[in-house]
Amino acid sequence: MDRANAAERIRELSEQLERFNYEYYVQDNPSVDDYTYDTMMRELRKLEEQFPDLLSPHSPSQRVGGVASGDFGKVTHAVQMQSLQDVFEFEQVAAFVARCRAMFPQVQFSVEPKIDGLSVSLEYRDGKFERGSTRGDGFIGENVTANLRTIRSIPLTLQENVPFVEVRGEVYMPREQFFALIKEQEEADEQPFKNPRNAAAGSLRQKDSSVTAKRKLDIFVFNLQQCEGREFATHNETLQFIENAGFRVVPGRKICSNTDEILEVIEQIGNSRNDLPYDIDGVVIKVNDLSQREEMGATAKTPKWAVAYKFPPEEKETVLRSIEVNVGRTGALTPVAIFDTILLAGTSVSRAVLHNQDFIDEKDIRIGDTILVRKAGEIIPEVLRSTAHAEDSVPYELPTSCPVCGTLTVRDEAESVLRCPNISCPAQLHKQLVHFASRDAMNIEGLGPAIITSLIDANLIHDAADLYSLTKQQLLTLEGFKDKSAENLLTAIAASKNNPLDRVIFALGIRNIGQKAASLLCAHFGSLEAIEQAKHEEIAAIEGFGDVMAANLYAALHDSNVQKLLLRMKEAGLTLEYEKPEVNENAFFSGKFFVLTGTLSQMKRSEAKKAIEAAGGTVTGSVSKKTDCVIAGEEAGSKLTKAQELGIMILSETEFLEKLS
């Protein structure tokens, strides 16, 4: 390749990799897999080595990747959170060992599994958890202290009391929790996370810490960044100190002295990774002696004393036998590929979601094709492409009518999704009732998916209102019910009648209307009648709402079937009224919208939010022209800047507390 072509290719690769960096580190929604990204990065580095005059300091190869999100305060890392040089062949591992041996003939290495998650820094002063942040670009990250506090394996008080210590760890989502989360997302017709790494990243960067807490994240700590009052000679000693301090450290590490030992450990870890309850994407090889590390030094991006061996993704061909179309709670039609069973990443796979018609058209997937399948992030099966069309195959088209009830489908252009508009569709009914009875909705204890299926199959219920006319005699006709269990279920159903209106609206399962939106709606209008009479523009004007949410709500509440359902619920004795939480009105806070930003030193964010609401105010997550006041703690970020630009009142934490009192 000549210089001109190399320059053009470097430009193309740099633009693509920068976009992928943004998708991966900022949006937590990558459009390519790690292997594709790594392959492109290798190509870029190779070209820059061949044409060193084309190497730019702004090249993606010269930085860790990612920038601090504007949603959280920025944290400048006192010790750079470097990334590692990736290697993909055993020969590259051997070359790394040889380079280290050239400097230190007796060098030893710590060989550890590489957890696939989100890298964070945890800082402790006098043994107390003080601050946690994401890696960001390695120099500046995001302050996510409040969310990290929800991770139970992060100690809030250390068992080793030192003046100051900073450790680095990898936040991840266990596979079991990941499967439960994507099941919830699919049942709610939400776009599920692609893999546990993205689920962990998205969960850790939630504005509401309670959402993070529900996601049940975990962490392994793998490095000591800095420590006052203690000295260490080896990396292994630092990990022993970290473990003694109360952290979970990366399990399965071994100390090796040569290439053969390292490769043997890599193979052992690779063979066992499918049996682990969490994801690993490779193996890290680090020089163990800290003084040797210091002498070896680092480049601007990576240390010279460590590499990460990355496992290649496993892909296999199979034959697509059929496409099954499932109908979700909100009527979304989801095509699922059914193919000959193959073994991927240690498990049998025979199904994969095909998303929508656009996805099928783009990859030209047809029944009978030979298709290439892999597990995205070693977890979720995905169809990469069709490798060969079957003879006489034809392009696949999703049905124009619902496969369950036969109603003509409609296309949701905003989401590229076909939907069944019939809210009485049996396929939707089951999922709607599961949601209706769930803990955060009507909280009907004992009314699980299996019982709902039995009730529908017995033709006892056709919508949620039918639950309130069930009798003991009817329940006793169902398998598994006896006097006590029937009485318990009827008691739970009766108790749900006392739920406030916001729970009922959330329980209806209207698209984009979650718990918070339902509460905001009810707090604003006060009753179902007022909500039903409200115009689209009035709903959209509520702080925290938007046009799409308002449109979905307005359409649902003006649907004749939904109106009949709500009328029957009212006749059954449901409250359908909303009583605002009791507040001690404070003239400064009453009726105003507040935004909290930065770190508060004298109370938790959740406590501040409750105090504002108790005084008659409302707390929202973002700054807009509707915001009346921003309360800025330490290291307040872009929200403070935006408030200053809009001329919004800004209070310090001290001023805020004075107003409260």
Describe this structure in words.
- It is built from 24 helices and 22 strands.
- The chain has 661 residues and is an alpha+beta fold.
- The protein folds into five domains: 3-62, Orthogonal Bundle (Helix Hairpins); 74-310, D-amino Acid Aminotransferase, Chain A, domain 1; 315-419, Nucleic acid-binding proteins (OB fold (Dihydrolipoamide Acetyltransferase, E2P), Beta Barrel); 426-572, Orthogonal Bundle (DNA polymerase, domain 1); 593-660, Rossmann fold (3-Layer(aba) Sandwich), CATH 3.40.50.
- It has a five-stranded mixed β-sheet. It has a five-stranded antiparallel β-sheet with strand order 14-13-12-15-16, with no helix packed on it.
- Helix 1 packs antiparallel against helix 2 (34-50), helix 12 packs across helix 13 and helix 16 (501-507) packs across helix 17.
- The protein is globular, with a radius of gyration of 28 Å.
- The termini are far apart.
- The model is unreliable at 64-70 (pLDDT under 50).
